[in-house]
Amino acid sequence: MFTKFTRSLRFIQAFIVLSTLLAPLAPLQARWPAQQGGPPPKEPPRRQILPLDPLTPGDRKLAEQIAREDPKVRELLGNRSQLISITLLFLKPEGEQVGVPTKPVAIDRHAEVLFRREGEVGVRAVVNLSKRSLVAAERMASMELPLTPEDISQAAKLALEDAELRKVLGDEVKGYSAAAESPGARAQQFAITGLRLFSKGEDDPCTKHRCVQLMFRRGRDYLADTTVWVDLTERHVYVERGKNETH
Amino acid sequence: MKRTRLLAAVAILLSFLVVPRLTSGQTPPPWMPCSGINMVDQKFPVTGPEETHWRLCMEAAPRNGLMIHWAFFRKSPNAPWLRLFWDARVSDIFVPYHSGSPRYYDMSSFTFPMTPIGSADCPAAVGGTPLGANVCKEVRDRGLAWKDDANVRRGQELVLWGALDAANYNYVIEWTFRDDGVVLGRVGATAVNLPSVPYETHMHNPIWRLDIDLNGFPADSVSFGTHTETGATANDSDPVINQEGPRDWNPHAFNSLDVSDATLFNGHGHKSYYQLIPLPTGGLSRHQESFTQHDFWVTTYNGTELWAAQLPNYVNPPQNAANADIVVWYKGSIHHHPRDEDGEYVGHYWHGEALVMWTGFMLKPHDVFDRTPLNP
């Protein structure tokens, strides 16, 4: 019995000595690896969607569906409408004062859904994806509505059918296509990009219409002596040939 | 005997796991609403014991590019974490040309994608790590933090950047989080001049929307820091901005927007605040559009008020902005006067790239620390 006790005592002594030896290493163990600036530690499989997780195709579908089914949005949209964009909105939870949370905070996931309707006006709907409900809906001016890659593609298609532009581009016209739908488009040899044009002149169609200025890139160079803009509302192409400006 | 040995072994193992938590004494990190590459955690200095620490969420998306959601700073391992941002983003980039037209809104008018980021953009040799396909994280030396004769300390910083592919232009959106608690926001314009008028001067005006939440949403106030000279003496004032509205920056008055929280003081009992200080390159523009008539705007929080061109509407009628949940806005400017260094005509085509032109701001802690940071 006594021998057993002394042996146990030896182990307890060994434990104390080892603990003393290991304690100085403790901070290293506690801080590694996240605080070393290296890659974050592997996380266990996610069970719950986090508020800032990117929208999934399912989220997008749900956001559009919630918006379109709401009577107020339906009234604002009228008969014909086109979906423009769906983006994640990171809104503060109401009634909760999040300082430095140590536990997960319930933050509803929201999405902003933009539509274009007839007459070049838009509708913005804010959807609560967590509660599957519409938060707000309002009409937007045409100017507030972003162009879409499809708008650029449509403008490019119209422009490439223009006889004057075809003459300018010559044989190369066959190589050109819209770059807007491909983020890595700079690798394309011939690509068409575009910018939204606004005008404040009363006689200028782009004061009220959706207009795009197109740019034609060959390799890393841009066609510079010809200005091309497209009135998407009227489906009209304007080609203006000029001399290279100087400075 | 075997049982005793086993018990002792378990006790040793437990000591290795539990004791560190007790001895390190670090405040636990905040829960974050993001994960994976979107969660960025960086302690400083990069090697050796921690002095300061940043923890934040980033989002790379078309249209607004690289955004910061939630950012926490810890001024020492034992100090509480301080929330700085709920959301920080470039709201829009307004680009008017000198002839009066075109006048582009490079974020709100389009859903431009972000450019790819590769090893040439973000080399490991300079501390770069690509985060996904569109963002580069650089952790690097930032030069002198302080120097006092032979005593010296170099600083370090975490830089996150990505670029928006805005047709012929690229906009580099950069966020820097320094070891001394400073945050820098910059936008750089680069790539190809507008091909139809490559020599026409124009402006690139990025407008930042900064939802600063010191110590949580409520009870924040913004003061307007102003330096005044009278004869040989000078005076600094910092009156609270009581209502939503704009303010103008005067370089002779060293104006700043100073954001504080009613509950946030440092160890000396001094009110802590973050100063929004413009870092213009050359100047700050004014255009006919009313939102460009001022450099700063203060609004109360509305999660769907995100577009700078709407600022005059957001503050009409003006709401109370003192002891409130506030958002501050700042407009920077790049005056792009084309030069031969931008490129040249080659036949009917324009060839060449405009080198990166920057503008930005600094968010500087004031009475957040109790003593000189990064100083033994």
Distance between the termini of chain B: 51 Å
Termini separation of chain A comes to: 103 Å
CATH architecture of the domain at 149-241 in chain A: Roll
Rg from alpha-carbon coordinates of chain B: 23 Å
Q: Report the count of strand segments of chain A.
A: 10
Succession of helices and strands of chain B: HEEEEEEEEEEEEEEEEEHEEEEE
Instruction: Estimate the global geometry of chain B from the Cα principal axes.
Output: globular
The overall number of domains of chain B is 1
CATH topology of the domain at 149-241 in chain A: Nuclear Transport Factor 2, Chain: A
The fraction of residues in strands of chain B falls at over 45%
How many DSSP-defined strands of chain B? 22
Count, helices of chain A: 6
Query: Largest inter-chain interface?
Result: A-B, 85 and 91 residues
Unreliable sequence segments of chain A = 20-37
Q: Mean pLDDT of chain A, rounded to whole units?
A: 82
What is the radius of gyration of chain A computed over CA atoms, rounded to a whole number of angstroms? 30 Å
What does this structure look like?
Among the domains of chain A are: 57-91 and 108-144, Nuclear Transport Factor 2, Chain: A (Roll); 149-241, Nuclear Transport Factor 2, Chain: A, CATH 3.10.450.40. Chain A is 27% helix and 27% strand. Chain A has helices at residues 2-22, 26-31, 57-69, 71-77, 149-160, 163-169, and strands at 81-89, 110-117, 121-128, 133-140, 177-178, 190-197, 211-218, 221-223, 226-231, 236-241. In chain A, strands 5, 6, 7, 8, 9 and 10 form a 6-stranded mixed β-sheet that branches. Chain A has a 4-stranded antiparallel β-sheet with strand order 1-2-3-4. Residues 20-37 of chain A have low confidence and may be disordered. Chain B has helices at residues 2-24, 311-314, and strands at 39-44, 52-61, 65-74, 82-96, 103-105, 128-131, 135-148, 151-166, 169-178, 183-191, 202-212, 220-230, 233-237, 245-247, 256-265, 271-279, 296-300, 326-331, 334-336, 344-346, 349-351, 354-366. Chain B is globular and about 80 Å long. Chain B has a single domain (32-366), classed as Beta-galactosidase, Chain A, domain 5, CATH 2.70.98.20. Chain B contains 2 helices and 22 strands. With 376 residues, chain B is mainly beta. Helices cover 7% and strands 48% of the residues of chain B. In chain B, a hairpin with a 2-residue loop joins strand 8 (151-166) and strand 9 (169-178). Chain B starts with a helix and ends in a 10-residue tail after the last strand. The relative contact order of chain B is 0.14. At the A-B interface, helix 1, helix 2, strand 1, strand 6 and strand 7 of A face helix 1, strand 1, strand 2, strand 4 and strand 5 of B. Strand 8 of chain A pairs antiparallel with strand 21 of chain B.
